[in-house]
Amino acid sequence: MAEKRSNEVDGAFVEEGSVAGGSFVPTVRVPAIPGLFLEEGGARVLGNRCVSCGTPYFPKAAECHNPHCGESRMEDCAFGGKGVVWSYSVADFPPPPPHKFDKPFKPYVIGVIDMDNGLRMVGQMVDPLESVRVGAQVELVVDTLYHEEGKAYTSWKFKLV
Amino acid sequence: MREVSVLGVGVHRFGKTGDDIVGTKSVTELCRHAVQMALKDAGVSWRQIEAVAAASSRFSGGKGWGLNGNDIVEDIGSTGIPVYNLSAGCAAGGNAFNVGYSLVAGGVYDVVLVVGGEVMPKGMIQTSGVEEATDPEFLRQRCVGMPGPSFWATLARRRMFDHGTTEEQYARVTVKARKCSVGNPFARFQKEISVADVLASPYVSNPLRLFEICPVSNGAAAVVICSAAKARQFSGKPVTVASSAVATLDFSDALPRGLAGPVPAGPSFHTEAKSAVLRAFERAGVGPRDVSFTELQDNTCYYELAFPEEWGLCEPGEAQMLLDSGQTTPVGCMPINPSGGFVSFGEATTAMGVWQIAELTWQLRGQAGGRQVPDAKVGLAQSNGLGGNATAAILKR
Predict the structure, then answer these.
(1) Phi, psi angles (nearest 5°) of residue B215
(2) Which member of A65, A121, A135 has the closest CB to residue B251?
(3) Three-state SS annotation for chain B
(4) Nearest residue of A to residue B264 by CA position?
(5) Nearest Cα to Cα of residue B396 among B288, B281, B178, B241
(6) Would you give the DSSP letter of residue A96?
(7) What does DSSP say about strands B378-385 and A74-80: parallel, antiparallel, or unpaired?
(8) Which of B17, B235, B330, B369 is deepest in the core (most CB within 10 A)?
(9) Chain B interface includes A134 (CB < 8 A)
(10) Reduced to 3 states, what is the DSSP secondary structure of residue A146?
């Protein structure tokens, strides 16, 4: 996904865009929350990991929460890659604020993913319900969550591989 | 620690804003009804109440600061007594009961009022109240959009994978719950419903349907608790508090509550609920198989199956068979939510933990009418709330 969005405009990325008055107007892609994930160079979320016991955290934890860990030693870490579906559900109705979505609302699958990097993560799935199964292989991607004032706001999501 | 009794209980029937039950009543009016009923049941006058432990609401009353106990005192009589306003999300009622219980058990006061009441906004509960990138609940709702029903639905889906639970079995939990609610004068819904009705209701979050998820309700509950020694001075019919416990979730909890956590080595449990319930068992000196009946937080029918297994009331995967053979009804060997549960009441969030104590009290006194558990001796109540809060209480005859 990343290579198709390598066009950088003011530090943000562009997506499909639109044609207005005969000229191509790119849609600026901005993260729904800055500093939480990366798109360029492959989708990754920004967390940290305790170097002592290896426990991963996203978002970043101030200290290691593992009661069996001898010493909390936190190091920043970007997590991406693949995982398997632990479970999933569907947002059949629009969630209340602070969620934001494009209208009309389209139901989406929510995945709970056990990642190879050691994190159990939640995120929207880009795939339709019919294709999702417990145990299915997925990868982390960055995709559009909603549009506002001509910008596409993105988040991390999961895609079947 | 002194022995503590529940001396009197009161509930305002649950309803929905604008209906014939609660109409346009404010949370103060709902609470006033519950408090006056509890005082009368206890044979205690307002002037004999030495302190108030109140559940703090973020939705109604409390002057917008969660000062719900102060609202009660202002409404019923400014006797200058201490007021404790307790916040624990949907577990606030159970938390208030625990604080009231601890104050009486510890000898600080003899007679304490515990109260919770709500007038809820319509629709799905907006879980995050702040828009700050440092708030994990805000991040989860903005970046994913996973309200309560979708959290429960992922657990229900996983159970279908682990134990082969069917959508029809989930529907039968609701059918059982609604059957219990028939004749319960405090339930919002008091009519039976069929499996076909449940399966015809739309998905709120697949695989969970509208009739399998508790709606929000308006309602209130109050209990008067008292040191067992002093209880004899009043006319109320006391029930013993065998234990009351509070817990929060721990590191081993691997349920998808935030954005991410470490993949667990073993199965995933609601660690806050399990800790609170196991502590309550330990302090009461009773085991899970000694419980005559349980009132647990069934925000969705999934919990009627999952929680009894997580707490050792039955074996993992066994609850749906007990359901199918009628053992979870009031006359079965493992009665779950004889009141009809949250699915029949709707959730008036902070009232729930207090209402459960009222329900346990009626059952243990043999005053539960058509939903009575025969020869009920020991009752377990459990509530959960946002932030990883849980409470449990065991009452006995």
Answers:
(1) -80, 180
(2) A65
(3) CCCEEEEEEEEEEEECCCCCCCCCCCHHHHHHHHHHHHHHHHCCCHHHCCEEEEECCCCCCHHHCCCHHHHHHHHHCCCCCCEEEECECECHHHHHHHHHHHHHHCCCCCEEEEEEEECCCCCCCCCCCCCCCCCHHHHHHHHCCCCHHHHHHHHHHHHHHHHCCCHHHHHHHHHHHHHHHCCCCCCCCCCCCCHHHHHHCCEEECCEEHHHECCECEEEEEEEEEEHHHHCCCCCCCEEEEEEEEEECCCCCCCCCCCEEECCCCCCCCHHHHHHHHHHHHHHCCCHHHCCEEECCCCECHHHHHHHHHCCCCCCCCHHHHHHCCCCCCCCCCCECCCCHHHHHCECHHHHHHHHHHHHHHHHHCCCHHHCCCCCCEEEEEEEECCCEEEEEEEEC
(4) A120
(5) B241
(6) P
(7) unpaired
(8) B330
(9) yes
(10) strand
Beta carbons of A89 and B142 less than 8 Å apart: no
Between positions 72 and 131 of B, the ones with CB within 8 A of A are 123-126, 128, 131
Amino acid at B244: S
- Residue A107, classified by CB atoms within 10 Å of its CB into exposed (0-12), middle (13-18) or buried (19+), is middle
**Other CB atoms within 10 Å distance of the CB of residue B73:** 20
Chain A residues in contact with B251 (beta carbon < 8 A): 65-67
Residue carrying the six token digits 């429960």: B152
Q: Do A134 and B161 touch (CB under 8 A)?
A: yes
Tokens of B270: 């609601």
- Give the Cα separation of B283 and B240 in Å (integer): 13
pLDDT tens, residue order, chain B (397 aa): 999 999 999 999 999 999 999 999 999 999 999 999 999 999 999 999 999 999 999 999 999 999 999 999 999 999 999 999 999 999 999 999 999 999 999 999 999 999 999 999 987 777 767 888 888 889 999 999 998 999 999 999 999 999 999 999 999 999 999 999 998 999 999 999 999 999 999 999 999 999 999 999 999 999 999 999 999 999 889 999 999 999 999 999 999 999 999 999 888 889 999 999 999 999 999 999 999 999 999 999 999 999 999 999 999 999 999 999 999 999 999 999 999 999 999 999 999 999 999 999 999 999 999 999 999 999 999 999 988 999 999 999 9
DSSP state of A2: G
B contact test, residue of A87, A132, A156 with most B CBs within 10 A: A87
DSSP class of residue A98 equals: T
Residues in B touching A58 (Cβ below 8 Å):
259-260
